[in-house]
Amino acid sequence: MDDVETRELRYFVAVAEELHFSRAAQRLGIAQPPLSRAIRLLERRMGVTLLERTSRAVHLTPPGEVLLTEARSALDAVEAAIRRTRKAARTTPHLTLALKPGGDAGLLRTILDRYAASPGAVPVDLAFRVGERAAMVRDGRADLALLHRPQNDLTGLDSDALHTEGQVVLLPKGHRLAERATVSMADLHGEPMPRWPEARPGVTGHPVADSNQLLHLIQLGRLISVVPESVGEYLPPGLISRPVLDADPATLVLAWSQTSTSREVAAFVRAVVTA
């Protein structure tokens, strides 16, 4: 089989995500007939049917579902390789650290000071994000990230633990558990929980995009949330926190790409983790 081009993978991903050739063509900025021909050619070259087409709908076949997952990963890897290559060519190297506001367990200043004191330290840019920190490292937009285990999906990343703490549940005042000094995970069964964009596969819940949205929904009584105890120290009016005695500990980790060859990244990890 001839090599598949990244252009063909982009075409297929657009159709597979839109499940509509006209919308996919518009998204790609091309006409529909060339897109349809390209997908048929890709199917012939691979020897499989990727899409089931009817007069009313387009559906992914099982091979198509596999290719969608693999194509996304392949395209992300290509984009990451390009970003890292361009970054390596810069005459003035620097690092980008992605983190969630308030998600550093109070360690950010110490982390930056430790690295700044190491030989050959380069400038560190901070990228404050909630929902895409791990993705930023995977695709090369960030060199490192502060994430939480087990809450975040660390697929494709290496990591070292920096700090482990217990977890608390955030509740609105007047909640049925508000009078309890502590709670258990069983007490929280059936309560509406959030789902972050970077949650591990299989985690369900109400989608939330940022911390402000989460806190507002909790204040309204729409959600509760289990978070690291350091997050529960600074709450707006109307919210309370209670320790969850049997919740898995939350571990703050420093994460970087498994494929990273950056000397600066390696130096940052050594300075921060081994200090």
Automatic annotation (TrEMBL):
Limits of the HTH lysR-type domain: 4-61
InterPro entries: LysR_HTH_N, LysR_subst-bd, WH-like_DNA-bd_sf, WH_DNA-bd_sf
Protein name (Swiss-Prot/TrEMBL): LysR family transcriptional regulator
Family: Belongs to the LysR transcriptional regulatory family.
Keyword Transferase: no
Keyword annotations: DNA-binding, Transcription, Transcription regulation
